[in-house]
Write a structure and sequence with these properties.
The protein is an alpha/beta fold. Helices cover 33% and strands 20% of the residues. The protein contains 11 helices and 11 strands.
Length: 330
């Protein structure tokens, strides 16, 4: 029996504060696992999401995550060029616009439908078609591929809007389109009501993941994957995210678990909460899995730290290598 834990955002995003954030973290089980195991570089770069990583692990040719989620969220949509068009809130912070999303931005389906209807009316002559598949997952069909490069929402959250605008020859034109989208949304009654109630407005969208979509072109992979987001679920053909609360809930066969509890706090700079999540991971996951390795119940454990770009595989034999000292992955 082999388990893999995928842990995004194990590295604090502010490099200057990183030594302070890591100071005095007491994680003895993780230190043993990481220090004793066999290390290698993660096959993906440090900006990869759990879904990016799994797409490369589970498929010979990694599929478009947009195509997979669109097929699951909107199985009857027309073929064409589609983008993820996720609703966001742009917060004014000194000299920047910070990108905020779920879970800090809560949206109802009625609000999403009303905003999308207004956008479809505004951009009908341009051949744009917006769809609110869920309150927080919107899509946009375009008449043609705009030949732009986009950044995933997971990478952009918490960042400066200026750093994550579309790039390419038509970037200026598309920045104007985004400005027009923002004007439509800002002036909508949905945002008037949210503003009056003191709730963050849904005042922009984040475009990403463009794909020339053909219905039924991609078959989901077959793997026991738990945790993660809707993209991870779509990769393995799940209608929703399958989760496990503790090690005891895992099935007795090879499994992959996405432990993204660190992510929200890392994205939005919640220092105390981020450190507390490490303690939770130690108690609920690292210590029990170390015990399973020690007693031979588990054949191997792989820990993949995406933002650190490192991966370690531990077997029971590794635990007896006394010359390898316990150490943490930061």
């Amino acid at each position: 029996m082999n388990y893999e834990l995928i842990i995004p955002d194990s590295v604090w995003r502010d490099e200057d504060l990183r030594p302070l954030m890591n100071r005095d973290l007491t994680l003895p089980a993780l230190a043993i696992l990481y220090g004793k195991g066999q290390h290698q570089r993660s096959p993906m770069g440090p900006c990869a999401t759990a879904a990016d990583y799994l797409a490369h692990q589970l498929y010979d040719t990694p599929p478009s995550l947009t195509a997979l989620t669109l097929a699951q969220d909107c199985p009857d949509v027309q073929s064409g060029y589609w983008l993820c068009c996720d609703p966001i809130h742009l917060r004014i912070d000194r000299d920047r616009l910070t990108i905020l999303g779920v879970p800090l931005l809560q949206i109802s389906q009625a609000e999403a439908d009303a905003l999308v209807a207004a956008l479809n009316q505004q951009f009908a002559e341009d051949g744009f078609f917006f769809v609110a598949a869920t309150p927080s997952r919107w899509y946009l069909r375009l008449p043609a591929d705009p030949q732009l490069q986009f950044t995933s929402l997971a990478q952009a959250l918490g960042g400066n809007l200026q750093d994550y605008l579309p790039q390419g020859e038509q970037a200026l034109q598309w920045n104007a389109v985004l400005n027009e989208i923002q004007m439509v949304m800002y002036g909508h009654r949905v945002n008037d009501e949210r503003d009056a109630a003191g709730i963050a407005m849904i005042n922009s969208v984040h475009l990403s993941g463009g794909v020339d979509y053909r219905a039924g072109a991609i078959a989901p992979a077959k793997a026991a994957v738990f945790g993660g987001d809707h993209q991870v679920a779509a990769l393995v053909g799940q209608r929703g995210v399958a989760s496990v609360a503790t090690v005891a809930d895992l099935p007795e066969h090879d499994s992959i678990v996405v432990l993204d509890q660190l992510s929200v706090d890392a994205i939005y700079g919640h220092a105390y909460e981020w450190r507390s999540q490490w303690s939770w991971l130690e108690t609920v996951w690292f210590a029990p899995l170390l015990a399973q390795l020690q007693c031979g119940q588990l054949q191997s454990l792989t820990l993949t730290f995406l933002s650190a770009g490192t991966q370690v595989r531990i077997t029971r034999l590794d635990l007896y290598r006394f010359w390898r000292r316990p150490r943490l992955p930061f």
